[in-house]
Amino acid sequence: MPTNFTMRQKTASGYETLYPKTVPEQIITNENNRFVTDAEKSAWNANASKTPTVYGTCATAAATAAKTVTATGFALAAGAMVSVTFAYDVPASATLNVDSTGAKNIQCQKANIKAGVIKAGDTALFVYTGSYWYVLAVDKSAADLSAPTYRPLGSATWAEVNEIAQAGLAPLYWSIGDTRQVTLSTSEVITVRIEDFGHDTLTAGGTAKMTLGMVECLNTTRQMNTSNNTNVGGWGSSAIRTFMTTLLGQLPSDLQAVIKSVTKKASAGNLSTSLTTTDDKLWLFSYTEVNLPVNASYSPGGEGTAYPLFISDAARIKKVNGTDSNWWLRSPPVNGNAGFCNVNNIGKAATSTAMGARGVTVGFCI
Questions:
Q1: For residue 150, which of 43, 55, 171, 254 sits 20 to 30 Å off, Cα-Cα?
Q2: pLDDT tens digits, residue range 182-223?
Q3: Helix, strand or coil, per DSSP, at residue 164
Q4: Burial (CB count <10 Å: 0-12, 13-18, 19+), residue 177
Q5: Is residue 146 very low, low, confident or very high in pLDDT (cuts 50, 70, 90)?
Q6: Contact yes or no for 68/104 (Cβ under 8 A)
């Protein structure tokens, strides 16, 4: 059947064309008779030259939080996505300004971005929520994967350790047992190690990101109580707990600034099996926390949970000035009211009168 044809109908005045049908020109030119207005066409044509998904680069210096992205033809709108390769690290609480569309906060894990999430050479994918940029993924550069800036533990500042820990990234950077040195204001140098991640309960609520403890004891032994041999009031009323405030003040100020208060449990002392709770920034370990064998004469149980490095008698041995020594625990023994539990020089459970001098090793949380 031919495709080009004309259909006409005979009328009183002649013939009327039925196909193809012509229409008055004003039907087409009149906006009221069209599905799309000229204004809508112009807006659509303008947006056609821009896309909500682009790739860009950022060369803003590492120390500058206001990051600018060079990208072409980007329209900022909710749902817009952008991939950005960063020449330098992205610091905490940074903002992103894509193609001069305005600086917007960067968020990751439902909070402002932390230091260490995006590093030099990384490419990150963001989505705009309508009020801030949210990190969907980070493609780590080969350099970032093979040699992170913050490994080993001793190469990071305490502020950086805290930033990484609070972002929940500490287990990706470090391992239980990693160590670093700390110099006290007395010039004594101590070594601390990571005891565990997510182990202790914060006084303010939630879980502390990291727990660290001394590898050995302080150079000077101390008494649990200085005036008499008693454990009445337990750890909470002991003289050595008061000393923790002094020791805290001897730590470097940047470390003091990131230590978090946590809740600690210990038996109440004076033959009691009841537990008391204290809020501490520095603390002695408990009988339970160093994984000593269950013994109702020493501990009623429930004084926290064991840290994973205390796996044997040998793992519990600590030194004072290079010599294997007894070291204090915060647990009063249930079977006596004159002293406190300690770990002896071969890593086993022992008790000593409160005025006896024993080694001191402390823990703390970040």
A1: 55
A2: 999 999 999 999 999 999 999 999 999 999 999 999 999 999
A3: helix
A4: exposed
A5: very low
A6: no
3-class secondary-structure state, position 153: helix
Decide if pLDDT at 27 tops 90. Answer: no
Taking the C-alpha atoms of residue 158 and residue 256, their distance in angstroms, rounded to an integer, is: 9
Q: Which amino acid is at 35?
A: F
Residue range 61-86, pLDDT digits in tens = 999 999 999 988 888 988 889 999 99
Asked if 86 contacts 77 with a C-beta cutoff of 8 angstroms, the reply is no
**DSSP H helix total and E strand total for the chain:** 8, 24
Q: Which residues fall within 8 angstroms of residue 304, CB to CB, at 6 or more apart? A: 200, 264, 265, 286, 288, 289
The end-to-end CA distance of the chain, in Å, is 85
Pairing state of beta strands 357-358 and 222-223?
antiparallel
Q: Per the structure block, which two tokens stand in for 44?
A: 């659509």
Residue 306: DSSP 8-state: -
Cβ atoms < 10 Å from Cβ of 264: 25
Q: What is the Cα gyration radius of the chain?
A: 35
Determine how many CB atoms are found less than 10 A away from the CB of residue 301: 14
Q: Quote the CA–CA distance of 141 and 90 in Å, as a whole number.
A: 14
Write the CB contacts of 88 (distance below 8 Å, at least 6 apart in sequence).
58, 59, 60, 61, 62, 120
Residues near 57 by Cβ (< 8 Å), separated by ≥ 6? 69, 70, 71, 84, 85, 86, 87
The CA distances from residue 294 to 82, 291, 313, in Å, are 57, 8, 14
Residue 349: other Cβ atoms inside 10 A: 21
* 244, two tokens: 């923790």
The residue among 97, 25, 34 whose CA lies nearest residue 64 is 97
**Coil, helix or strand at residue 60:** coil
Provide the pLDDT for residue 47.
60
Q: How many residues does the structure list for the chain?
A: 366
The residue-averaged pLDDT of 14-42 equals: 62
